[in-house]
Amino acid sequence: MSGSILGDIFKISTWGESHGKALGVVIDGCPAGLKISEADIQKDLDRRKPGQSPFATPRKEGDEVEILSGIFEGKTTGTPISMIIFNKNQKSKDYSALKDVYRPAQSDYSYDLKYGFRDHRGSGRASGRETAARVAAGAIAKKILAALELKITAYTSSIGPIEIDPKNYDEDYIMQNFLYMPDPEALKKAESYLRKLIKKNNSSGGTIECVVKNVPEGLGDPVFDKCDALLARAVMSIGAVKGVEIGSGFEAAEMTGYEHNDFYRYNENEINKTTNNAGGTLGGITDGSDIFLKAAVKPTPSIEKTQQAVSKSGENIDLSIQGRHDPVIVPRAVVVVEAMVALTLVDLLLKNMTARMEYLEKIY
Amino acid sequence: MSGSILGDIFKISTWGESHGKALGVVIDGCPAGLKISEADIQKDLDRRKPGQSPFATPRKEGDEVEILSGIFEGKTTGTPISMIIFNKNQKSKDYSALKDVYRPAQSDYSYDLKYGFRDHRGSGRASGRETAARVAAGAIAKKILAALELKITAYTSSIGPIEIDPKNYDEDYIMQNFLYMPDPEALKKAESYLRKLIKKNNSSGGTIECVVKNVPEGLGDPVFDKCDALLARAVMSIGAVKGVEIGSGFEAAEMTGYEHNDFYRYNENEINKTTNNAGGTLGGITDGSDIFLKAAVKPTPSIEKTQQAVSKSGENIDLSIQGRHDPVIVPRAVVVVEAMVALTLVDLLLKNMTARMEYLEKIY
Amino acid sequence: MSGSILGDIFKISTWGESHGKALGVVIDGCPAGLKISEADIQKDLDRRKPGQSPFATPRKEGDEVEILSGIFEGKTTGTPISMIIFNKNQKSKDYSALKDVYRPAQSDYSYDLKYGFRDHRGSGRASGRETAARVAAGAIAKKILAALELKITAYTSSIGPIEIDPKNYDEDYIMQNFLYMPDPEALKKAESYLRKLIKKNNSSGGTIECVVKNVPEGLGDPVFDKCDALLARAVMSIGAVKGVEIGSGFEAAEMTGYEHNDFYRYNENEINKTTNNAGGTLGGITDGSDIFLKAAVKPTPSIEKTQQAVSKSGENIDLSIQGRHDPVIVPRAVVVVEAMVALTLVDLLLKNMTARMEYLEKIY
Amino acid sequence: MSGSILGDIFKISTWGESHGKALGVVIDGCPAGLKISEADIQKDLDRRKPGQSPFATPRKEGDEVEILSGIFEGKTTGTPISMIIFNKNQKSKDYSALKDVYRPAQSDYSYDLKYGFRDHRGSGRASGRETAARVAAGAIAKKILAALELKITAYTSSIGPIEIDPKNYDEDYIMQNFLYMPDPEALKKAESYLRKLIKKNNSSGGTIECVVKNVPEGLGDPVFDKCDALLARAVMSIGAVKGVEIGSGFEAAEMTGYEHNDFYRYNENEINKTTNNAGGTLGGITDGSDIFLKAAVKPTPSIEKTQQAVSKSGENIDLSIQGRHDPVIVPRAVVVVEAMVALTLVDLLLKNMTARMEYLEKIY
Fold first, then answer.
1. Alpha helices of C54-183 — where are they, by DSSP H?
2. Which helix (H) or strand (E) holds A48?
3. Chain CA centroid to CA B24, Å
4. Tell me, what's the ipTM?
5. Ordered alpha helix ranges (H), chain B
6. C15, B72: Cβ pair inside 8 Å?
């Protein structure tokens, strides 16, 4: 197996390289009867595609998705949904110069070690471009979740040292700026910070936060398939992510039990928690609270500033990677985090349908 | 599925509740010809078992493992290995008082929501006691890894606000203290900190670091089965873990590309990296560098200090959980982290055997 | 993986050797809230256990099952159910004489080829004794199916050349005779045939038929997970089975389309088929018709009559396997077929709960 | 899940409907370094495609395959291989007349029961056209097997009542006739038989045999993943197959142990069996003998001869399906059987690489 299949019920199988003919995804296990159109998917793809912002690579890709199977008269049929995105701009650049170079913080070296050779053009399968297929599948997952009124919101929570201030949080603002930040003040500082880095031919890291509201109870399974464990895997599988927190995350390590425990209060015929350090799960199973997670994203590895690299045959190289790359991966990764969260939750949602005998009686 | 099976080739299936008759694990997919004995496994179980330290619950459990199948004349046969640990102390306490109480930061509430009812005795399946089965399986995984000279070392890196100082790092010291800390000075402070919390009927969080040395190249698969993604899932599946970092982790978010990129140098006929911010993988695939990960562990939720809880039927309760619990989960979780890392790496090691056509020719 | 895990949602993981300490099974994914007791399981185990009939091996095994986890106050909790059967009679015989012999039609040779060595005692993991674990898991699967009023009936349809006559079919008679035949006349002939073979130190093959009534619609998935494909795999995985038919089976090959097609008629507000050559599925998906399958079982390979065998080191041997073995495997395999059918259907039943968007709305 | 993913290591994910835009397959887990071209795949597709014989439907489809990913400079890269076949002739017919009709022996009714509605055009996902994707994947599997000199040969062994005579078996003749029969005399009779049926607007069933030579030892795993069990599932998953036999098959049921057991003889430094009733496996694991299996194929359900059908709304219909269909499915299914056998064996071959500790040392 080459690691490109995810999910137990809602299974996605992605494929494609940065500079191949196309990339795509097959979804096996989408329930029948979901209304879906290419426009539903395109909307999310457009948030990820390059060439749209002063803070993103100018590579021109329309990233137009085409549905090839599994939809009939506007609804899913229950059979595999195949989606394809043709690469249109893949021949524009000559990659032969980098053919035998191991660029720092890229997968060139490890792919060669694993497979003996590699498709070196634009990182091949290891390109961030691969995430377009995840976003397409994630858009369908979101549509299922939306039918249950579940809502996923991800946003940029920091760029380098610039962090958002929770007091300024404005959800509506997220989609109104190129960096997908919910805080107009932090945005200004981040833009200024990035412009300086661009001038220095350098790049920045950052963080992404994701909140899920109106989460059904019971998602996640004990032991290895805890909701938080599967979310961590899904989000950490995004190439640039180096850390994942659920709820209180690393702060929990410095807290006492009395500080960290979320107390319960019963009022207005509901059990509620006074805090949400847990981040939405107890024992790995959702309890109806909001899910809260945070991801650390490393800086774009491709920079023009000269670095120490090495060639396959063992020559030390001073490498300056020409061309303009994303000065920060974070904004384009926001919708990818949403997709990975959606894909994880849909799979858990479907699995949880089999958790109780009384559910069988509701269906059969 | 109830989430208790892990792995694609080296599959483990764990079972058992805190206060049931026994708990155990079945391993399906262990290669034939591995020398293994109950003593190999007991050694790790003894590091996790309760009642051994002033900083652990005094529950008396020998945690003696018995191998029931899959071993013949001291070697694995290639067929399932079943291991069992009988619960000996499970009837010593009356849990009926907590039968209908939802304790803060425990799984009581979410299990009831998911399954409609639960085995309430000592948290049932959600008890940390479940990890004994992981440790038993992990000990076998480690034995396979040891045959390839791969070595996993986990240790306590902080208790509450007390962090180890890398300058004081002494690997040998880890196994010589109850808190599994590699820094004698930090240990003293941590012990003092914990004693104060015990007096206040409170508990502490902390962090665990894990280093893997002599890692074979090529472990991990592109996209969803990246080595770091699977490690994150495995470690986050430990009940108390709230965050996982690989390599630079959350620090990466504040760094520039030039700072974060690990440069290459070729010397003495080897390709080396000048730093290891990546933490052992590139594009999710190991490159021979050390794997480095860190986990945040929340404070023990069971504390005697009075908390606000609620009953199943909706009464607000002032809850003081009697009996002495672990004042900190971290030390007993160190060997569990090692187990989860070992289980993940063994599975990737076995999968990687199928990655190249030339490997087929070596075997057939 | 060593092939001992079956199922996608209702996953069973079996373990144990013929002459080890015990054998057992872990079920991961049984819905919560099912009433189950050891007696429910013992009932089926007793149909398989040895020593009960003049036509079965006299090995004494009580095959008493013990449930170790996953049941609380008489109901499944949704967490793994572990069941164990201790081997009580495993030391009664010295197997060292056969240690290096490859017996005809047994797995001795292939296990040595695959694993390099083997547990030779009583065929180790390859013993038919392994099926006790399947029967235990199957009993729980049947209990779920019974809640939906689905009923599985298997029986002996032939012993060597003696076939049952459909005209004599008496379902009640199946459980009243040692050979589990539904036809009293065929039974007499079969008994006589077997007695002659026993005298000649030889053994017989036979067939088993299985009918499933009151099957819910929609079980099975297109392409590879067709209901009939998964049933074929499940039944063919019983060691002695050499062929499987669904519906018309091999007769279909000689028929014309007009003869074979099951016509539809609508009457009394129902769509019905005038025949059932399909055997219960269309395109691999159940349509509410009875499932009908048939399995061919080879003769018991262990016979006292002298055969040509070979030793591991390459000596030709005249082998007479001492001790009384089952003169025919069929009767003891009847309940194993039922178990395999039940396990397959339960898994499909649970998976089918996720097939439609409208089912989500029924549950969430 | 919708049943369109097969395999544990060499995973294939197929998609597409009879009258959609295209159909295809993604292979996840093909080892890197295999030389493969579109021509390798086209060769097998051409054996399955329609319009080539007087005994096949004249639908015009070039079935031209295009590889979209996973191959670089003529070799597999170890990442997913995506293959697509565009449907070119899908709009030539108006299917609206059959929109609400349940045709006998087709999946119309069961798909409606399962999913609530269906893509009715040419049976949608349930069309035999789906097998083109299997054949494409199978061609790559065969290429891997060929590297180990393993050879799979399937052929038509009967058409209706006309069976081949083993004495006339001529392997070279198989590819020289439209019916893929290895016996020129049987061919003549079969052609004559089919011509008569065509005149009567009827169709025929038949059987396919498959022999695998030069099989590596050790393929297959104990208990549920026996080589024969997985072959049975794979072959039974072909829509029209109603029965599968391994080795002696249903004849085994009438034999005695002494007749059925394959005796061993040691000569010329090799262990050999004097017969091969087992059909290539012992205890489900290959021992180096030829694998032999046989499948029963039902008659083509679509016939012009008037049948009794029913509409969705409950009207009884006299149905004559216009247009020329395959008078027999068998010849076009021969290469599909080969594909399913190849896919099963490749997956077992890759899994068996992890069966022994000594194999790890060969690779690491």
1. 108-115, 131-147
2. helix A38-48
3. 16
4. 0.97
5. 38-48, 108-115, 131-147, 184-199, 227-236, 257-260, 330-352, 357-363
6. no
Chain A / chain D CB contacts < 8 angstroms:
162
Q: Do C357 and A31 touch (CB under 8 A)?
A: yes
Q: Please tell me the total count of domains within chain A.
A: 1
Annotated binding site of C for NADP(+): 48
- Please indicate, yes or no, if residue D58 is contained in any of the structural domains: no
Q: Which two tokens stand for residue C9?
A: 């949602």
List the one residue out of D223, B117, B344, B69 whose CA is nearest residue C12. D223
- Spatial CB neighbours of B335, under 8 Å, sequence gap ≥ 6: B44, B47, B48, B135, B138, B154
Whether A283 has its CB under 8 Å from any CB of chain C: the answer is: no
Write down the H helix ranges in chain C: 38-48, 108-115, 131-147, 184-199, 227-236, 257-260, 330-352, 357-363
Question: Chain A closest CA to C285's CA: distance in Å?
Answer: 13
Query: Which structural domain range is residue A207 located in?
Result: 5-363
Do the chains contact at B81 and C15, CB–CB below 8 Å?
yes
What's the token pair of residue C161?
A: 């050349």
Amino acid, res. D319: L
Which of B5, B11, B15, B346 to substitute to test the interface with C, most C CBs within 10 Å?
B15
Q: Do A179 and A187 contact (CB within 8 A), yes or no?
A: yes
Q: Which B positions 60-89 lie with beta carbon below 8 A of chain D?
A: 76, 78-79
Taking the C-alpha atoms of B303, B307, B313 and B314 in order, what is their torsion angle to the nearest 10 degrees?
A: -160
Cβ separation A242–B245 shorter than 8 A: yes
The verdict on residue D263 lying in a domain is yes
Portion 96-135 of B in contact with C at CB < 8 A:
114-119, 124-125
Type of residue found at A241:
V
Report residue A222 as tokens.
């004990």
- Residues of B24-51 as b/e, b for ≥16 C-beta within 10 angstroms? bbbbbbbbbbbebebebbbebbebbbbe
For chain C, the chains sharing at least 3 beta-carbon pairs closer than 8 angstroms are A, B, D
**Spatial distance between the Cα atoms of A43 and A135, rounded to a whole number of angstroms:** 10
A93: CB partners within 8 A, 6+ apart: A122, A323
- At D77 the three-state DSSP class reads coil
Residue D108 CA to its chain's centroid (Å):
22
Instruction: Tell me the C-alpha distance between A220 and A216, whole Å.
Output: 11
CB of D362 within 8 Å of a chain B CB? The answer is yes
What CATH number is attached to the domain comprising D136? 3.60.150.10
* A357 with C8: Cβ contact below 8 A: no
**Domain-located, residue D30:** no
In a domain, residue D221? The reply is yes
CA dihedral C341, C344, C345, C351 (to 10 degrees): 180
pTM for this predicted structure = 0.98
pLDDT tens across the length of chain D (364 residues): 789 999 999 999 999 999 999 999 999 999 999 999 999 999 999 999 887 888 888 777 789 999 999 999 999 999 999 999 999 876 656 678 889 999 999 999 999 999 999 999 989 999 999 999 999 999 999 999 999 999 999 999 999 999 999 999 999 999 999 999 999 999 999 999 999 999 999 999 999 999 999 999 999 999 999 999 999 999 999 999 999 999 999 999 999 999 999 999 999 899 999 999 999 999 999 999 999 999 999 999 999 999 999 999 999 999 998 877 899 999 999 999 999 999 999 999 999 999 999 999 999 9
Strand A281-282, strand A285-286: pairing? antiparallel
Distance set, CA C297 to CA A37, B103, C301, D329 (Å): 52, 56, 11, 29
